[in-house]
Amino acid sequence: MATPYNNNSIQADTDRTRLQSFHEQSISVMNAMMSREWNKEEEEEGEVERKGGSMLGAIFILMNTIMGASILILPCSFGQIGIITAVIMELFVVFIGYIAHMILADAVDRYNGSNYQELVGRMCGPTVQALSQIGLILYFFTLACSTHITMGDQAVKICELADGIVDSSEGEHWYCNRRFLIPVGSMTLIFPLIWVRNISTFSYVSVFSVFSVFYIVAAIIIDYYKLHLPLEDEILMPDVGILPIMQYLPVFTLGFQCHMTSVPLYYELHKRSVSRYTVVILVTSFLVFICYVLAAVFGLMTFGVNVDPDILLEYSSKDILMTIARAAISVSVIGSYPIFTFLGRGAVDDTLIQISEKLNRSLERNSEFRRVLVLLVWHFLALGVALLTSSLGTVLQLVGSIASLFMLFFPGYMLWRESRGGNWGYRVTGAVFMFLGLFTFVWTIVSTLYKVATHSS
């Protein structure tokens, strides 16, 4: 069973105290997501104080983890497979995502793993743990690339507004080109943040990010009613095959992927129990589902089936509502970037140390030189990929394919391992989850490479 935690919860009626409680929970979650060596070092310095997090705080953290740039691609995805099919797929992903959360929560109670990689290692062995660590690196790296793309695309529209350009067809000045704005924004806004050693500074971004998404949803609905456009029949149920539908499964998977955060969050939950965490997951999933459906349906009804993979790019630069939305989503993703980089660098560092141990060579832990080198390579490589990638949708599909491994494949493998005692229900469920996760990952990689090779949209 789990080690008991400090049961001193923070309860007060004022908004300031509630925000402080959420801030402290965010710190504890991020501390739990670090490697065990870092935690040990911080504990020795007296910097870590473990406190149980509230259920409300857990809901906000999960919503921030789930919602973000992925909401921008949903109208396009709904348009390609139809609203009815898309809603059914969303509900399916919510259902299997809930089961995966319960698998992980039960595993935390039995194996007392404080983060995803550690839990995988204790249940599945070092080989599978190494695979999950590599997947973690790829996941955070592709998120870093999507941050650059999102920031650059929104900056173009904001620059056009400042420059007096109403429509992109009018032409643009060199300083409104994304190939100029992405590097400038990256070096001036993002690059200084990656050197921050204490990521708890960015925990307040979680609250801002959630309300930014709420604002974007409201702005999309308001703009639809301002335009008074009729509903097209083909957006409800277009004639598409099963394979095109499966192609968009990674997008919906990414839209509900928070399972890497779920492990340390449940580990740190005040008075943790599966029943209390069930409430957290159900409330979070319901709120996110409503936001996604509203944004996707009203965005699709506004621009039709050929809507851009980044819905905000469809709106005029003169649209003040959407200009605020662009600024909000940019601040949200930029504020999350240091967290992605911090956790990704930690996974890279742990992987390098494990490889050196296999080769009977020793590497100094917490090496400042290695930290600087990894950060520089990470940042400029993500910047380069963003400059070479013109579509946010392509990157988000890749992120979604990796997310399917953490939502489906690894929890399924855990359940399948536990079924060796003869529980056929666990074995079948685990096998189904592993198949869905692996199929989604492989199918997305192959289809994306085919699109790149054939220059398909």
How would you describe this structure to a colleague?
With 457 residues, this protein is mostly helical. 73% of the residues lie in helices and 0% in strands. The protein is built from 17 helices and no strands. It has helices at residues 15-33, 36-44, 55-66, 70-81, 83-111, 116-124, 126-163, 178-190, 204-227, 242-247, 249-255, 259-267, 274-303, 320-358, 368-388, 392-418, 424-454. Helix 7 runs antiparallel to helix 14 (320-358) and helix 9 crosses helix 14 (320-358). The chain starts with 14 loop residues before the first helix and ends with a helix. The model is unreliable at 1-50 (pLDDT under 50).
Features:
mainly alpha, 73% helix, disordered N terminus, 457 residues
Q: Which structural class fits the helix and strand makeup?
A: mainly alpha
The amount of helix comes to over 70%
Q: What number is the mean pLDDT?
A: 79
The tally of strands reads: 0
* Oligomeric state of the chains present here: single chain
Give the number of helices: 17
The arrangement of helices and strands along the chain is HHHHHHHHHHHHHHHHH
Biggest sheet layout: none
Unreliable stretches covering 5 or more consecutive residues: 1-50
The fraction of residues in strands falls at under 5%
What's the N-to-C terminus distance?
51 Å
What is the overall silhouette?
A: globular
User: What gyration radius follows from the Cα positions, in whole Å?
Assistant: 22 Å
Explain briefly what this protein structure is.
This protein has 457 residues and is mainly alpha-helical. It is 73% helix and 0% strand.
